[in-house]
Amino acid sequence: MLLEFFQWCETVRLGRLVVESLWLFPVIEAVHLLSLSMLGGAVLIVDLRMLGFGLTDRSVAEVFRNARPWLIGAIVGLIATGIPLFLSEPIKLYYSTSFWVKMSGLAIVLPFTFFIRNPAALSEPVRHTARRQMLAGALSIGLWVTVAAAGRWIGFS
Amino acid sequence: MSLLAFCKWLDATAGSTALRESLFMYPLVESSHVLFLMLFVGMTVMWDLRLLGLTLTNVPVTVMADRVLPWVRAGFVAMTVTGVLLSYAIPIRTYQSVWFRAKVVFLILAAINVWYFHARVLPNAANWDTDARLPWVVRRAGLASLVLWAGIIVFGRFIAYNWFDCDIQPQPAFVNWFAGCVVPPPQ
Description:
The complex is a heterodimer of chains A (157) and B (187). By secondary structure, chain A is mainly α. Chain A has one domain. Chain A is built from 7 helices and no strands. Chain B has one domain (3-179). Chain B contains 9 helices and no strands. Classes of the chains: A mainly alpha (157), B mainly alpha (187). The A-B interface holds A 22, 26, 29-30, 33-34, 36-45, 48, 53-58, 62-63, 66-67, 69-70, 144-145, 148-149, 152-153, 156 and B 27, 30-31, 34-35, 37-39, 41-46, 49, 55-59, 63-64, 67-68, 71, 149-150, 153-154, 157-158, 161, 163.
């Protein structure tokens, strides 16, 4: 069932286009990496602040509001480049453990970011907030690093 | 000793061979290089965007320099250590890669940009520190940094591809010159 879906993905024109080109895969991959760097900055400047580092004389909420458009932009860029990369080799990815680790990580980190971590960053500084933000920041870094590392590891298998 | 001869000597050392042939160390070093990109280039981009007036416009540039640049420096050290190890594992091919050479050129330009900013621009920060829209000389440094690091990432990623490798001939004369390929004259 799932394998059938991946087999269908292999027939999508966009993926074939990427496979048949000598340059397209590397170029899209490079843009994927550029977006990863943007994500790193937009995520870390807030997570480090929640952990008590970096821009400590600014509120977490202010740092977060400034980073948010760049976070969204980075995630959009990563998904927009990730889809053609995926479509170029869906069967290989179906059998790749690293790919499934990465997808599981994404399935956790995306809802975590938008429903737990971002609201925590915006919460009013009252009792227990700092500890909750610290936890959210640490988890955010850990989860994104796992996703990025698993993503890199796809290339080694 | 020429640089090529030095790379050949390096290639034959036990450490280079061990790292190149190791099952886990090489991928581990390479992955670390990519992960530290998130820290180093990520924080650099936030700093550049501040210089361009596109984020954190309420934060004085000197505060950004005090609080954000230490993370950039830590990231740079990690990128350099892992990057040197990667070149050490595969010295000859790296030295003769057009992408690696383009990356080095851009790294030198980025270093000049950093030096110029800290020597000539940042000392005058008192005049514009808290401005949301900074003088062109400041924004120019941020823009140059963004373009240069983007190029460095793309060139770095392309080192992995063998389109222009010296052992794949014929190549355009410019490629052989820029990569420093030693091509035997045609018979």
